[in-house]
Amino acid sequence: MTEQTTAEPMHLVDRIPQMQPEELLTGLVPPPHFANVSFDSYRPDPAQPSQAQARDQLQAFVDRKGGESGGFLAKLFGSGRSPSGGGIYLDGGYGVGKTHLLASSWHAHAKPAAFGTFVEYTNLVGALGFAQARERLSEMKLVCIDEFELDDPGDTVLMSRLMRELTDAGVKIIATSNTLPGALGEGRFAAQDFLREIQALAAQFTVYRIDGEDYRHRGLPTPPEPLSDDEVAARAHRRAAQHQVALDSFEGITTHLEKVHPSRYGKLLDGVAEVYWTGVAPVSNQSVALRLVALVDRMYDRNLPLVTSGVPLDDLFTEEMVTGGYRKKYLRCLSRLTALAREGGERG
Asked: Name one GO molecular function term (predicted).
């Protein structure tokens, strides 16, 4: 008779990961979810020609040596000249494949090249200092920036200067966001006070708009119904016999994130194959919500199925929050949570 293997789930709240500055640099590569994507594997929606056009423009940008940009932003800002920068900016809603195309560009381009989220680059500057971060990134042939967001004036000035100096050094830049460069920071701080910096930042890019519906949910239902606390715990213990799973209360994990810098959220999840939360409750505090968004992004990067109890995931953020300045961040988070929860529901 074969003895059944049992194991206990681990708890993310027991981890306080540490990272050395060099780890931030070596970690600037596409996450597992996008480790094997390519321009060929991108499936544009035939009803949205801008998707195929963006793919073709990016492929041409990656293939050519100079990376000269066109004049779209000159018209956008009325400057009467072409942008001096060597960058492309993919603007579009969540779930239209911008990160897929960004990672495809990284894979196809000559190396060295860097790939990271906006917050990972600001964290890099914080860890290394501006001069050293600029020096290390200037060694790259291409810098890919995902989820470009300007949430405070300091980041506006910092990233404007960094992008200018990188493009002056001949580095190609590709960025993705769901906000046009001229509207970055809108609704979150007094953007008009920093209009010069925002426009200088925008001038580094040629914009390509990608239209379409969220590919994760085309024709698919809403998130699965939450389980009971006991059902979540039982499933976590059962799955822990096969691989490492993380079981935490929702209150516990959201409180714990205060103690861990967002640059370490990926390392917080190292080795975890599935995530289980009990007692999910609506979030009304902006700081708590933004930390949760950052964690969900890292979970999605790592394809971590999610199983929950408590309120349905589409009730996670208040109506006030999803109509405010961070609306697009929260909608992207809900889209990714739904995809992870569906995967968790299929594991059984």
From this structure: ATP hydrolysis activity
